[in-house]
C-alpha cells in the first residue's frame, strides 16, 4: 500500500472541502436573513426593507455562485481519487447525494434566478415565496449532504454482502434518520446562521462607523443580533447534543477530543486545557472540571467514558475477530454458491468486525498472516492524532460562547438602548467577521480528522479507499485545485468588498423619500420628542 498516495489524496480532498466550506456557511445563513428581511418588507411595505433585501441578496448571490463552482468539482473527487470507496459503499453514500441534486440543488438553482430577476415581474407575495424557497433549498442541500456524511460517521441501515463484496442498503429510513446525521445537520446549519449574522453585523457596524447608510445599518444590526443570538444559543445547545451522540457512536473520537488516555471513574471530568502527548500517552498539565465530561457525554453520574488505552485494547480484540471474518469471506468468495452453511454462519458472527481486519492491509496483503506485533500496530492506528483534535475543539467551543456574548450585547443595545452603539463595540463587530469561518473550519477538522483512520467508521479504512493513481497525478491535480480555488477565493473577496464599499444602490430615491416623509410624520408641532403628548388650542 503506497501511503504517499493515501496522504496526498486526503490532502487534496481536505483542501477542496475546506475551500468549499468557506462559502457554505454564509450561503446557509444569508439566505434565511434575506428571506426574513423581505418578509418584513411585505408585511410593512417600507421601501427600506426592500432595499435591505436587495443589498444583502446581492452579497448572497455572489457567495452562492462561487460556492456552487467549488462544490461541483469537489464531488467529482469521489470517482477520481476515491474509486474504491465509491465502489464499496456507493449504493448507500450515493443515494443522499443524488437526492441533494434532485430535491435541493435544482430547487435553489431554479428559484435563485427568479429572486434576482423577478422583482418587477412577480407580486410581493410571489417574490417572497421565491425568497423562502431559495432559503429552504439551500438548507435542504445541507441536509442531504450531512446525511451522507453522517452515515460515514455512523454506518447504520446497511450491511456487507459477502457475495458482491460491497456494502448494500438495508434501510433508507435508518440512513435518513441516523442520529449522527441529524445532530450534524442542526449543528452545522445553526453555525451557518451565526456566520451570516456576524457578517451582517460586522458590515453594518462598518457603515455606522463611516456614517453611511445609517438606516439600513441600524435595521440590519437589529436583525443580525436577534437572529444571531438565537442561532448562537442553538449552536451551543446542539453542540451538546452532538457530543452526547459522539460518546455513544464514536468513542475513540470522544476520547481523543478530551485527551482522555485512561478510563476515568464516572462521572468523568472535562479537560479544560492541557498538552496531549502521543508518545507518552498522557495529557500534561491538564486542568480538569469535575463531572462535566460525564454529564455532557453520558448525561448521567454513573456511566463511564472509556479512555484511549481501553479502546485500543478493544480494537485488538475486534481485529482478531475481523481476521476470522476475513478467512470466512475468502472461503465464501472461492466456493460461491457451494459455500457450506457453517462458513456463512461464522461470517455472520464475526462480519461486523471485518473492517478492523482490513486495517492490517496497510502492512500486508493477507490479514490472516498478521503477527501479534502487526495486530497491535493496527490497533494503535485507530487513535487519531490527539493534539489537533484537542485544541481545535476547545478553540471552536470558545468562539461559540464568544458569539453568544457578542450577539447578546448587540441585542440588548438594539432592544433597550435605542440602537445606539459605542464605537469600540462597532469596531469589535468588524474585527470578528472572520471568526465564524475559523470556528466552522475547526469544526470540520474535529468531525472529519477525528474519524481517522476510517473513511466509513469501523467499516472501510482510509488506506483502502483511494484510487490507483500516481504521485505525479495527485501532485499535479492538487496544485491545479489549489490554484483554481485560490483564484475563486480572490474573486469572491474582491466582489464582496466592491459591493460592500459601494453599498446599496437600488431603490435609493424611493427609500430616501419614504424616510423623509416618515420622519416628518414623527415630528410634533412643538419640536419635542416624536412620542411626546401634543396640545391644541
TrEMBL record:
Family matches, as InterPro entries: Cyt-d_ubiquinol_oxidase_su_1
Record GO terms (molecular function): electron transfer activity; heme binding; metal ion binding; oxidoreductase activity, acting on diphenols and related substances as donors, oxygen as acceptor
Source superkingdom: Bacteria
Any single Pfam family the record assigns to this protein: Cyt_bd_oxida_I
Membrane topology: Multi-pass membrane protein
Keyword entries, A-Z: Cell inner membrane, Cell membrane, Electron transport, Heme, Iron, Membrane, Metal-binding, Transmembrane, Transmembrane helix, Transport
Cellular compartments annotated: Cell inner membrane
Name the record gives this protein: Cytochrome bd-I ubiquinol oxidase subunit 1 apoprotein
Organism: Roseovarius lutimaris
Amino acid at each position: 500500500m503506497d501511503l504517499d498516495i493515501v496522504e496526498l489524496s486526503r490532502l487534496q480532498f481536505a483542501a477542496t472541502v475546506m475551500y468549499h466550506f468557506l462559502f457554505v456557511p454564509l450561503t446557509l445563513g444569508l439566505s434565511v436573513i434575506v428571506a426574513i428581511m423581505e418578509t418584513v418588507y411585505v408585511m410593512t411595505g417600507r421601501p427600506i426593507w426592500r432595499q435591505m433585501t436587495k443589498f444583502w441578496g446581492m452579497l448572497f448571490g455572489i457567495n452562492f455562485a462561487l460556492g456552487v463552482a467549488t462544490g461541483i468539482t469537489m464531488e467529482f473527487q469521489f470517482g477520481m481519487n476515491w474509486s474504491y470507496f465509491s465502489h464499496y459503499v456507493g449504493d448507500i453514500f450515493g443515494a443522499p447525494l443524488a437526492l441533494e441534486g434532485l430535491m435541493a440543488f435544482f430547487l435553489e438553482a431554479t428559484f435563485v434566478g427568479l429572486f434576482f430577476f423577478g422583482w418587477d415581474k412577480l407580486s410581493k407575495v410571489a417574490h417572497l415565496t421565491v425568497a423562502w424557497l431559495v432559503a429552504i433549498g439551500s438548507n435542504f442541500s445541507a441536509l442531504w449532504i450531512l446525511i451522507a456524511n453522517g452515515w460515514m460517521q455512523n454506518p447504520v441501515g446497511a450491511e456487507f454482502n459477502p457475495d458482491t463484496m460491497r456494502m448494500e442498503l438495508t434501510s433508507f429510513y435508518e440512513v435518513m434518520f441516523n442520529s449522527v446525521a441529524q445532530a450534524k445537520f442542526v449543528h452545522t446549519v445553526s453555525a451557518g446562521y451565526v456566520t451570516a449574522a456576524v457578517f451582517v453585523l460586522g458590515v453594518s457596524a462598518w457603515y455606522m462607523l463611516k456614517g453611511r447608510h445609517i438606516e439600513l445599518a441600524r435595521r440590519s444590526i437589529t436583525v443580525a443580533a436577534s437572529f444571531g443570538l438565537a442561532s448562537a444559543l442553538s449552536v451551543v445547545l446542539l453542540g451538546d447534543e452532538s457530543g452526547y451522540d459522539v460518546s455513544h457512536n464514536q468513542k475513540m473520537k470522544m476520547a481523543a477530543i478530551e485527551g482522555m488516555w485512561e478510563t476515568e471513574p464516572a462521572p468523568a471530568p472535562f479537560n479544560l486545557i492541557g498538552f496531549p502527548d502521543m508518545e507518552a500517552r498522557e495529557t500534561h498539565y491538564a486542568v480538569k472540571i469535575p463531572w462535566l465530561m460525564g454529564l455532557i457525554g453520558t448525561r448521567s453520574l454513573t456511566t463511564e467514558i472509556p479512555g484511549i488505552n481501553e479502546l485500543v485494547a478493544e480494537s485488538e480484540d475486534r481485529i482478531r475477530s475481523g481476521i476470522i471474518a476475513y478467512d470466512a469471506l475468502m472461503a465464501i468468495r472461492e466456493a460461491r454458491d457451494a459455500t457450506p452453511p457453517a462458513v456463512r454462519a461464522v461470517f455472520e458472527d464475526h462480519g461486523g468486525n471485518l473492517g478492523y481486519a482490513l486495517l492490517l492491509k496497510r502492512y500486508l496483503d493477507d490479514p490472516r498472516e498478521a503477527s501479534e506485533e502487526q495486530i497491535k500496530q493496527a490497533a494503535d492506528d485507530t487513535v487519531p492524532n490527539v493534539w489537533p483534535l484537542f485544541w481545535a475543539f476547545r478553540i471552536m467551543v470558545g468562539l461559540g460562547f464568544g458569539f453568544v456574548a457578542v450577539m447578546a450585547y448587540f441585542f440588548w443595545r438594539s432592544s433597550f438602548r435605542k440602537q445606539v452603539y459605542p464605537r469600540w463595540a462597532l469596531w469589535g463587530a468588524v474585527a470578528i467577521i472572520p471568526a465564524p469561518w475559523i470556528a466552522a473550519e475547526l469544526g470540520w477538522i474535529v468531525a472529519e480528522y477525528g474519524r481517522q483512520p476510517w473513511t466509513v467508521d469501523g467499516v472501510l479504512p482510509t488506506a483502502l479507499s483511494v484510487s490507483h493513481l500516481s504521485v505525479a497525478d495527485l501532485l499535479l491535480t492538487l496544485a491545479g485545485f489549489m490554484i483554481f480555488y485560490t483564484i475563486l477565493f480572490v474573486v469572491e473577496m474582491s466582489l464582496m468588498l466592491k459591493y460592500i464599499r459601494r453599498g446599496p444602490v437600488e431603490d435609493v430615491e424611493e427609500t430616501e423619500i419614504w424616510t423623509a416623509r416618515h420622519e416628518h410624520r414623527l415630528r410634533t408641532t412643538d419640536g419635542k420628542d416624536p412620542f411626546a403628548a401634543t396640545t391644541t388650542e
